[in-house]
Amino acid sequence: MIPDHCQRPREIAAIDLGSNSFHMVVARVVGQSLQIISRHKQRVHLASGLDEQQNLDLAAIRRGLTCLAMFAERLQGFEPENVRIAATYTLRQARNAHLFLKRAESIMPYPIEIIPGTEEARLIYLGVAHTQPESGRKLVVDIGGGSTELVVGENFDTRLLYSKHMGCVSYNQHYFAEGKISGENMAAAQLAAQQKMESIASQYHKQAWDKAIGSSGTIKAIREVLIAKGYNDGVITNKRLNQLVEQVLSFKNNDELDLPGLSDDRKPVFAAGLAILAAVFQSLKIEEMIYSDGALREGLLYEMEDRFRHSDIRTRTASAMASQYHVDIDQATRVKECAEDLYAQVEPQPGPAKSELSTLLGWGALLHEVGLSISYPGFHRHSSYLLRYSTMPGFNLEQQTVLATLVRFQRKALKLEEMPELSIYKRKHLYPLIRTLRLAVALNGQRTDEPLPKIHVKADKESWELTLPAGWQENNKLLAADLRQEQEYWAKAGWELAISS
Hints:
Elements: E1 11-17, E2 21-30, E3 33-43, H1 58-74, E4 83-87, H2 89-93, H3 97-105, E5 112-114, H4 117-131, E6 137-143, E7 148-154, E8 157-164, H5 168-175, H6 183-198, H7 201-205, E9 211-215, H8 217-228, E10 236-237, H9 238-248, H10 267-284, E11 288-292, H11 296-305, H12 307-324, H13 329-346, H14 352-366, H15 379-389, H16 397-408, H17 427-443, E12 456-460, E13 463-467, H18 472-475, H19 477-492, E14 496-500
Helix pairs in contact: 4-11, 5-10, 6-10, 8-10, 9-10, 13-14, 13-17, 14-16, 14-17, 15-16, 16-17, 17-19
């Protein structure tokens, strides 16, 4: 046995599939801290491949896959639990994102999570909070290629967060077409960004942050240009931003930008990013901003190492949602415990993927009746809609889709053709969860505090056998009728449910 002090430190990696660049950071877990041991960045310009129908063109897909192949070389030998990959704005928007994800499977043997904008904002804040020593309340602004995240938080907790559809790549395409720079284009871009900010600005004014912090490429590039101009403190102020805007307007095209400190690969999107930041300063009345190296990928890293915190966030989210929609928590808990017991019999030794699905089954059971707050008829559909489209901190889009799918098929006819497309999981992975939740819901249909007897289940693919205590069905005729109805639903879907005593 190798002594603890001789064991090789754990290494973890996080990849951020951004709209402008793909980033990878690898860290070593040393005691209670993370030691960054390598960073990798490739300019992919994914967002520039989105057409008017919101489909990624083949060239953009190829650029992304080529980059992933390079990253995969560095990750050889990494266990799945030590790698986390998050995709942001462009893959959220792309209608054919599933094509990219499907082709990526053969290159990168780790799941790619498409995360909602608010989850991206939360993780960015976490990355900044871990790498920035400033105490007090922080405003964090991150301008990416397709979206801008704005977060106010304190310590490691967020208080207000939004993700707005404005980024340096998308704004460059729209307001600086063919790289043309003009006062009119700059004013139009700034006005558009201010209009995006208009609906949320007052909420941020009420937060009274102590320090404004910027992260990621756009703000880093602006800081480097300011330092090259002689502002050695690197602080971004409103006055300095306005001076920089005037200087940029002295050029006619992005390619001609000749600013000390500005790299060639940042030139095409610099004016657009500058317009967005100037608008954010104006809308939020920011006096000055410093830069932080922490961003989304660092947030992913720290959360990966601090798994209990991630679980705690999702637990808090589920509890808050149950409270918000007045869920009968006693009934939800009964269904949850029953579902977990049945699934443990079906999957006695689940691997990492099925363990995650088991966890999602528990949350799905806890929240399966949120739709009752809308109406009883069709409440399973209402529940599905709420879980799919609500802001749920800690959950990525795939996880929300799984939750929505489970509660959608908890009762009534099994119209499996209505199941949504998934990227990380396959439909067949969800079938045992759906069957389990349906049984748990049916078995707890009486909504009583009297505990259920021990119920056994055996599973052989689509054929399941439920064994009930002898005589129990005779004493629970309504339940027996519900289970017979359930058998009919299963049969119409091509499944078999046998019931014995």
